[in-house]
Amino acid sequence: MTPLKVRRLRRLRNSQRSALSFTGKRALVYVIFESENRLQEYKLRFLQALSPLMDDVIVIVNGQLHVEDVNKLEPYGQVLTRNNKGYDTAAFREGIFAFGKDKLKDYDQLFLVNDTNIGPMRDLSQVFHEMADKQLDFWGISFGEEQEDVTKENPYGYIPKHLQSYFLVIEKLMLNDDSFYEYWSHLTDTDSRDKAIGRHETRFTKHFADLGYRFDAVVQEYEDSAMYIHPLRMLKAGSPLVKYTALKNYDEDQFLWQGLERESEVPDLLEYVAEKTDYPVSILEDIINKFKAVPREQYILLIDGVENIIPQCTRYRVLNKAEQLRKHGFEVMVTNLSDFQLSMAQNASHIIIYRSPISPELLRLCHMAQDYGKPIFYDIDDLVFDTVYTDQLSYTQGLNSVEKGNYDAGVRNYGYMLENCDGAITSTNQLQEELYKYQSKVLLNRNLASDDLIAISSQYIKDYSQTSDIVKIGYFSGSISHNENFELIKPAIKQLLTKYSNVQLHIVGILDIPQDMKPFENQIVTHDYVDWDKLPALISEVDINLAPLVDSIFNRAKSEIKWIEAALVKVPTVASKIGAFSDMVIDGETGLLATDDQWFDKLEALVLSPELRQNIAESAYRAVLENCTLSKKDEMVTYFEQN
Question: What's this model's pTM, rounded to 2 decimal places?
Answer without folding.
Answer: 0.77
